[in-house]
Design goal:
With 238 residues, the chain is mostly helical. The protein has a single domain, classed as Up-down Bundle (Vanadium-containing Chloroperoxidase, domain 1). The protein is 66% helix and 0% strand. The protein is built from 12 helices and no strands. Helix 8 packs antiparallel against helix 9. It is globular, with a radius of gyration of 18 Å.
C-alpha cells in the first residue's frame, strides 16, 4: 500500500510539472481519424515498389553522416528533439536554457506523434519494413518494441512536422530551416528501416494537421506566448 501511494504521488507530481499526460489535446480534440488520407500502397502496386526501392536505398545511407543522423533522430525524447532542432532554430534549445520552449514541446509532441496517428495505425496494422524483410536495423534496441506496432502512418514524421511548425511560430525568421529539419526528422525513418517511404509521407501530412487544433487550445496558446517571450528575451541578449 505504501509503495502504491509513493508511485501515485510521483505520477501526480509528473503531471503537475509537465502537463496532463504530456498532451494539450484530448483524443477527441486531436485530428484522430486521419484515415481520410487513404490506405497504404497495396502489395504489387507501383507505389509499393517505390517503398521497396527507397528501403533498399536507405540501407546504403546508414554508414554515412545522414545515416548517423537518422539513428539520432530515432530518439523522440524532448531533450533529443530540442537538441536536433537547435541548429535550425538558430539557438541552443534545452530544458536548462529554454525552459518555456522545453515545456511547450514536451507537452505537444505526442499530440502529433501519438494521438493524430493512432487511429490509422490501428486500422491498417501495416508491417514495418525491417519486420517484413526480416532484416536488422541500426536501432536494434527499438526493434522488438515496435515490431507489432503499425507502420502506417509514421508518428515520428508527424512529430517532426508538428514540432517544426510550433518552433516556427516562435522564431518565424528561421521557418525555412525549421520546416526542412522537421521533414528530415521524418525522412530518417525510412533510412533506418522502421517505416516505409509512404508511411513517412503520410505522417508528414498528418503532422501538419495538428497545429490548427493546438491553436484552439487555451493552455497551448498560453504556453506558446510564454515561449515567445522567452525567445525574445534571449534574442536581445545575443
Amino acid at each position: 500500500m505504501k509503495r502504491l501511494f509513493t508511485i501515485t504521488a510521483l505520477l501526480f507530481a509528473a503531471i503537475v510539472c509537465y502537463g496532463q499526460s504530456n498532451h494539450y489535446l484530448t483524443k477527441e480534440q486531436a485530428p484522430l481519424d486521419t484515415t481520410f488520407i487513404g490506405p497504404p500502397p497495396a502489395f504489387g502496386s507501383l507505389l509499393f515498389e517505390q517503398d521497396f526501392h527507397m528501403y533498399q536505398y536507405g540501407k546504403t545511407l546508414r554508414e554515412t553522416p545522414r545515416g548517423k543522423q537518422a539513428v539520432k533522430d530515432a530518439n523522440t525524447s524532448t531533450d533529443n528533439i530540442l537538441e536536433v532542432f537547435s541548429e535550425a532554430f538558430g539557438m541552443k534549445l534545452s530544458k536548462e536554457d529554454t525552459p518555456e520552449i522545453y515545456k511547450l514541446i514536451a507537452t505537444m509532441k505526442e499530440d502529433a506523434g501519438s494521438y493524430a496517428t493512432r487511429c490509422t495505425k490501428n486500422l491498417y496494422k501495416r508491417t514495418r519494413p525491417y519486420a517484413l524483410y526480416n532484416e536488422p536495423t541500426p536501432v536494434p534496441e527499438a526493434e522488438e518494441h515496435l515490431r507489432h506496432n503499425g507502420s502506417y502512418v509514421s508518428g515520428h514524421s508527424a512529430t517532426g512536422v508538428a514540432v517544426s511548425m510550433v518552433l516556427a511560430c516562435i522564431n518565424p525568421e528561421r521557418q525555412n530551416q525549421l520546416y526542412k529539419r522537421g521533414l528530415d526528422f521524418g525522412e530518417s525513418r525510412w533510412i533506418v528501416g522502421f517505416h516505409h517511404y509512404s508511411d513517412v509521407k503520410a505522417g508528414q501530412m498528418v503532422g501538419a494537421l495538428v497545429l490548427p487544433a493546438l491553436m484552439n487550445n487555451k493552455d497551448f496558446m498560453k504556453q506558446l506566448d510564454k515561449a515567445r517571450k522567452e525567445f525574445e528575451k534571449l534574442s536581445k541578449k545575443q
